[in-house]
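Record 1 of the preview.
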Amino acid sequence: MRTVITSLVLAGLLTGVGACVRHTDLLRSQQGMTPAERNFDNLWQASQYVLKKYHFTLDIQDRRAGLISTEPMVGKQFFEFWRHDSTTRRDRDESTVQTIYRTAFVTISRGGTEDEAYRSKVVVTVGRSNLGRTGIVTVSDAYRLPFGEHVGREHEKPEERGALETALKKAAETGQHIQPVLPEWLTPLGRDEKLEQKILGEIAEAATKRVYMRKLELPWPKPLW
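->
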């Protein structure tokens, strides 16, 4: 019996080691961080906070590579006054008459000569759905609508996932803008540069606030939604 239990435990450990995780966690406490690590952590936490504030669902989160991506989120409808992902009236009207998705990508890399200097870059891609599914067709659709509809990876092919992760890592290594690969069910419509700048500004503001809150030993707030 002990032999069976030991075998099961070892199998579980080996499975865990070989599995591919979607995110990596902080490895040590903030008190033991260098100035550069604290600067990175401020941007990392601020990026997560702002993306969640915009109702995005976080997908890939790799601290070591400085990468954060979100799942595609349907655009703001004309009656969703509480959402801020449509920066112009045209964007809002377009999302109302057809299914438009936005996906956000953030990379955090060294941005200056100083060791503690990091900077974040934001890319928001826009795509039109090819799934032929519009409007509210089920009760669950109606419940999801106030919080933004997200599409998981049920329509995503393994090769598309691999191409996306490769593009993100390349952007982090080179410091260049992200050139993500959209899945086949989305027709690319370019980038939303206005939303990119808006999110980038809020990340910088949130990171600055986090510095003062850390000095005052105040807890970092979480979005209410």
